[in-house]
Amino acid sequence: MQIYNTMTRRKEELVPITPGTVKIYCCGPTVYNLIHIGNARALCVFDTLRRYLEFRGYKVFYVQNFTDVDDKIIRKANELGKTASEVSENAIKEYFTDAQGLNVRAADVHPKVTENMEIIIDIVKTLVDKGYAYEADGDVYFEASKFPEYGKLSHQPLDDLKAGARIEVGEKKRDPMDFAVWKAAKPGEPYWDSPFGKGRPGWHIECSAMSRHYIGDTIDIHGGGSDLIFPHHENEIAQSECATGCALANIWMHNGMLNVDNKKMSKSAGNFFLVRDMAEKFGYEPIRFMLLSVHYRGQLNYTIEVIESCKAALTRLYTCRDAMNRALESAKDGEPSAAALEVVKSARDAFVTAMDDDFNTADGISAVFELVRKINTALSSPEVTKGDVKTYLDEFNALTGVLGLMYGKTDDEIPAEVTELIEQRKAARKAKDFALADELRDKITALGYIVEETRQGTVVKKA
């Protein structure tokens, strides 16, 4: 499997540190509000990566943090007259509602900053003791110039980075490029005791501490949105590698950003979309489909037309699955044919080829739809056997399962009254009482359902 490494700017073979096991750390949200569609892209991309690695036979240990103490959380708490803890805990609860809606599995560990303060303070102390960080009136800053490779992930020389840096009011750092790993407590803010005085961590240090604690000095894959490359991941690298003397990650994997109607998504532009609001309008599954429909490193442009086309594509998938389920009952008995086995082998080969080539979910989805096309053709033949159908269905479920799809619609719950009328109509048709069958069909239609006869049997769906 080849993955594009942001650090080296080329595709590299995935070679896990521990054979057979891939350890992934993915930067999670700062929990002060509902997640937006940009957050959702990273969630769905790395959830699918995890699923695919498992599909390929790896064990995966997946860590995604929650930043639950931060300036944004504190501001939100002050606005609402609540504690920072109340704001963050509520946001985490709402996060899981949306994540589950998107069929994103929970990480093996979801560490929170507030629950890992001891290990965070410990890595800050290590940096100070080694001379890479310094104290200044209760704050502690990492000294960027002490790390000669600073800028290696973003591929920007330190001098270029310095040109855009500045010292904010109240900061007492020695150089504009230095960054806080510990912030002295301010009135009304949450704080923790430390060897440097009362305070709280800077943003970047938490991931260095928690990835090391839960995974080790070096991670197989470190993931996140491309907006995190600088300064967050650049600063993580500097801190971690100075503290441990080891590479922080072997592969840096970043998903691209998301535009709305060809414009960068932002609150100021008025094109900022929360996942919850979109889900209420379109459902969660079309959002997931859309986020995987473009290569993860590519720019994704959200429009109403795009999400509607994703809904239509999902309908094709559900229609195919429904047809296979009906065919399992109506097809003749028999083992899978050589033709059916060849169809699923071809589909899997195309899917794996796409996904092994830098995790190309767009081409992976194309492979699934080619499988669907061949299945639909096969189901129209009177020669199809139950063995054929089961072979098709198993492969269809396996590939869509890797993509985390086909979860948003189960068989619609048909009211008992409608079910009874359907059975009566089946009996009338069997007795060749077509007048009664038509009358029963009209009653079913009046209740909001449509009855169709197909080669695989009777199909009932909402009108």
Main attributes of the structure:
463 residues, 15 strands, 47% helix, alpha/beta, 4-stranded parallel β-sheet, 4-stranded antiparallel β-sheet
User: Gyration radius, to the nearest Å?
Assistant: 27 Å
- Molecular shape: elongated
Approximately what portion of the residues adopt beta-strand conformation?
15-25%
Placed side by side, the strands forming the largest sheet appear as 4-3-9-10
Number of strands: 15
Order of helices and strands: EEEHEHHHEEHEEHEHEEEHHEHHHHHHEE
Structural class: alpha/beta
Return the average pLDDT rounded to an integer. Answer: 93
- Secondary structure tally, helices: 15
Largest sheet features = 4 strands, parallel
**Straight-line distance between termini:** 45 Å
Helix content: 40-55%
Report low-confidence residues grouped into runs of 5 or more: none
Structure description:
A 4-stranded parallel β-sheet has the order 4-3-9-10, with helices on both faces. It is elongated. The mean pLDDT is 93. It has helices spanning 37-55, 71-80, 84-101, 117-129, 158-163, 205-214, 229-244, 275-282, 284-292, 304-330, 338-356, 361-379, 386-402, 416-430, 434-446, and strands at residues 2-5, 10-13, 21-26, 59-64, 133-136, 139-142, 179-184, 199-201, 219-225, 249-255, 258-260, 263-264, 300-302, 449-454, 457-462. The protein is of the alpha/beta class. A hairpin with a 2-residue loop joins strand 14 (449-454) and strand 15. The protein contains 15 helices and 15 strands.
Q: What does this entry show, briefly?
A:
The protein has 463 residues and is an alpha/beta fold. The protein is 47% helix and 15% strand. Strands 4-3-9-10 form a 4-stranded parallel β-sheet, with helices on both faces. Strands 5-6-7-8 form a 4-stranded antiparallel β-sheet, with helices on one face. The protein has a 3-stranded mixed β-sheet with strand order 12-11-13.
